[in-house]
Every structure is written in C-alpha cells, then in structure tokens.
Amino acid sequence: MKRKKKGAFRWIFRYSRKQMLRIVLIALVGIVSALSCIVLAVFSRKVIDIATGRLKGSVFVYCILLLVVIGVQAVLNILESNLTVRAGCKIEIDMKQGVFGAILKKQTSQTASYHSGDFLNRLTSDVEVVVGGCVVSLPQSLSLAVKLVVGFVVLLLMNAKFTCFLAIVGAVAFLFSFVLRNRYKKLHREIQQKDGKARSFMQECLENISIIKSFVKEKTILANLLRLQNDTYQVRLKRNAAANIANTGALTLFSGGYYLALVFGALQIADGKISYGMLTEFLLVFNQVIDPFKSMSGILLQFFSVTASAERLMEIENLCDEPEPKSKQADAEKLYREMNCIRIDRISFQYGTEQVFKNASGVIKKNTLTAIVGCSGVGKSTLLKLMLGLVEADSGEIRIEMADKNRRINTETRRLFSYVPQGNMILSGTIKENITFFRDGIEEKTLRAACWAACVSDFTNNLSEGLNTVIGERGMGLSEGQNQRIAVARALLSDSPVLLFDEATSALDNETEKKLLRNLKTFKNKTCIFVSHRNSTVEDCDAVLRIENGKIREEIWNGQEWIMFSAVAGNISKQYASRDSERR
C-alpha cells in the first residue's frame, strides 16, 4: 500500500510539475491571506483596547489599517482564483492528453475489457478529483499549516497551558480522519466504479434511443438506471457516514474548545488579568488555529480521494502497450510496389478458450478484390484485425511476400492498410471533414475522385451545402448507406493501397453496390478485401477466402460458380462451394 501511494504521488507530480510554480504561488497567496487574518485579530484588539482606554492611540488609524488588510485579502482572493483556474485547466489538459493518449497505444485485448463509459468516467470525474487535489487541497494544506504554526506561537505567548490543551484536541481530531483512511479510499473507489457503470448505461441508451422507443421500453430503461443510481447512492451514504465521523468529531471537539476558551477568558477578565481586547484577540486567533484543525479532516479525506482516483488513472496507463515498432512505420507506397501478395501462413488464434483459427493458411493477391466469407462469428473480422496488427496470432504469421524478401505484418505495416469498420465511425461535423479525417491540404481533384469512386457524389450533389453539409453524431441526418459510402471515400483518400471493408456495403442497394465495386476496380494499384455475407458483393470479387472450422479455404471462379481451390495440392477440387445466403 505504501509503495502504491508513493507511485500515486510520483504520477501526480509527473502531470503537475509544469504548473508547480503556479501551485507554489497559490500556496504563497494562501499563506499571506492566512497571516492577514492573524493581523486582523491583532488590529481588532488594538481598536477595542484603545476604545476602552486600556491603550493609547488612534482608533481611526487602526480602522484604516483594518480596511487596508481587508482590501489586500480581496486582491489576494482574486489572484488566487486566477492562478487556480490557470493551473487547474493546464493540468487537466495534460492529464487527459496523457491518459487518453495511453489508451490509444494499448493492446486491443487489454482495452476490450473496459467499457467506453468507464474510460470517460475516469477521464472526467477522476481527473477532476486529482486536479482539485493539486490546485486546491495542496496549496490549502500549506496555507493552513502556516496559519496553524503562527497562530500557535501567538497563543503560546498569550497562554501556554491552554494552547497545549488545544494541541491535544487537534491531535485527537487528526486521529479520527487517519483511522478512517483505508475505508474512505475504498468507498471512493467503489463510488467511481458504480458511477462509471451508470454513465456507461446512459451512454449506450442514448446511442440506441430509437431501439428503446421502438420496443416501448422507456420505463424499463428508467427502472434499470434507477437501480444503478441507487447502488451509487447507497455507497455515497456510507462514504458520507465515514466523513461525518471524522468531521463531526472534530467539530464537536473544537466547538467545545472555543466555548471553553470563552469561559476561561471571561474568568480572566473578572480577575482583571486580561482586557476585553485581549480576549477578542485570543478568540480570533483561536478561531484561526482551530480552522486548520477543522479543515484538516476534510483535507485528509480529499487527499484519500485524490490518491484513489490517481490509482484508477494509473491502472489504465499500466495496461500493456502494443509492441513498440523496431523501426519507423513502413513506407506504404514502396512496400506495396514491391509486394506480390499477402500470405496467411498457418496462423492459430483464440479468444480465451474459443479457438478461432487453427493452422489456417491462405493468399490474397495484389491488385484484386477478395471476399472473406463464412458463418457469423467464424472469425472474418478477426482476420482483418490480425492484418492491422490490432491483435497478434498465437502462432504462425501473416506476411507481405516480395520478390527478394518477406515482411511480417505488425504495427509497423499498419499504414499499408485502410480500414472501414462495421460501425463506420462517422463523427459530428461536415461530410468533408469525415472524408478527409480533418486533414488539411488535400487537393480538390483527389477529394472528388474519392467521392466519385465511393458514390458519395450521387447524394451530395443534391445537398444545398454539398460536402460542407453538417451531420450529427453517428451520421445523424444521413441514411446508413450514405454513411457507409462516406467511410469508403475516407478509406480511398487515405492513400493506403490495401483497403479492408468489414460489411462496409451491407446497407447499399444492389445497383449502388455494383457501381461502387466497378469504380473500385478502376483503381489499378489497390487491393480490396471485403468481409461480406452478400452474394452481390462476392460475385464481383476476383477471389474468395472462406473461413470454416478454424481453416481458410480458397475459392476461385470457374466462369459459372465458385469452386474450392487447394493451395496445398495445387489443383482444383471437384467439390463445389455452397452459395446460400446464410453462409455469405
């Protein structure tokens, strides 16, 4: 636990060190502000003692000094607020950039076990807690420490015995919070986890709100959300109970101490040992001393929350990264120019206990349209992920074969491929921004060629804003088929010579699909690989790879139908491939 805490401190410092000067300035401003409160107590005593005749001097002068100190406090408050916002925003930006960037580098198998809503919860709620600890709790604890020390010195000079008693009371209050540290951290972590589940549920529901309405399940969804919210509510109550034990205990002790000091001072006045001004000063300074003690329990609990949230963010960063490329990303154009084919050589792969491929082999020839077919869940999309290096085969390899050498496909060869996933990944923005993927400097001629090939021009020419038409989240405002065409155009514009289409034409009508495939064939230096269940897609391809029982079977067109081709024996089998739509 101690090592983990030190790791959390180092992690927080790594992201906050650029703003350390501002954090120190915030602390200094807080310290000066704390000292000014002590000065106010001293000046208040002077005013009262002069007014009652115990001291000689001008009440007016000390009133002016009081106003000056109050004015200084106001300026310090503005300065502290400004510094806090600047430092906090910068740390938040760096932290979100760092953690989000880390997520992008992690192995797909590692991030797959986390819900996107959980990631968002950590990137928002947990980051907010840690940033608050850096720019609020840390400077506040330093200023409170100074206020405590100075106040103790003043009280010691006034009454040593009572000050020692106050120190004992403060130590007991501190002990209340320290004893509860592990339970409070555990409860905070549990709250963040349950809050993440509720956020994930709402996110999924908002993404599929039309399905919820079509099944008339609004009440059911609200009931499930309420259950998740109640789970969080119950844990919050437990955390609040733990906080109450610490805070209420400290408040009771110090409230009793304050009134004990008041009674003690009144008796001293009755004996003529102190003046009204001295009692006022004593009570004001006493308040400045017990304020850090009262705040200490809250700061300690905040500190426990900060370390718990930091550990949740560290958990994400500590996931396994994708293998570091041994060299720079391959030159896609040069690599493709030298490529003869993509060979799948005896690969084996499994998800958990489920065997997807077992010694599977196949060939994808250069400059062809190849279809990958098979039953649902047989491993078609997995094969594309293996080509992209998103997952790694347990044995065997997929390699690029060239005349004089071969190159294994991994993260270094990713630029060779452009991927059109089933979900299309259409972002909020204009159609043009989605096709260019926010890249600048693309020639209009190149953009229009990609739009023509993907049949995007067929519908954008009828839009008043054309390619500058704004679309909503997940392509809201366009049909699924139109969104698919935008995704295909984006792949063509990427300059990657090998295009991977995962059910990328499933929403297109037959006529548009055939037109799109014909257009793709006009690109002489493109290899297109289609995952599809549709006969219309397969019929226009040059070759077929059928995945079945963990194996890859090559099929070729004999002029009438697809027949099995044995790469091992080197001959054409007489066994004809089934062409029913269920297996496509």
Automatic annotation (TrEMBL):
Its protein name is ABC transporter related protein
Offer one Pfam family short name for this entry: ABC_membrane
Which key words are in the record?
Answer: ATP-binding, Membrane, Nucleotide-binding, Transmembrane, Transmembrane helix
The cellular component terms of Gene Ontology attached to this UniProt record, alphabetical and capped at eight, are:
plasma membrane
Q: Where is the ABC transmembrane type-1 domain?
A: 24-305
Q: Where in the cell is it found?
A: Cell membrane
Origin species: Ethanoligenens harbinense (strain DSM 18485 / JCM 12961 / CGMCC 1.5033 / YUAN-3)
The record's section on InterPro entries has: AAA+_ATPase (IPR003593), ABC1_TM_dom (IPR011527), ABC1_TM_sf (IPR036640), ABC_transporter-like_ATP-bd (IPR003439), P-loop_NTPase (IPR027417), Type_1_exporter (IPR039421)
Bilayer topology term: Multi-pass membrane protein
**Which regions span the lipid bilayer?**
21-43, 59-79, 129-154, 160-180
GO MF terms listed in the record are:
ABC-type oligopeptide transporter activity; ATP binding; ATP hydrolysis activity
Q: Ranges for the ABC transporter domain? A: 342-574
Record CDD domains = ABC_6TM_exporters (cd07346)
The domain of life is Bacteria
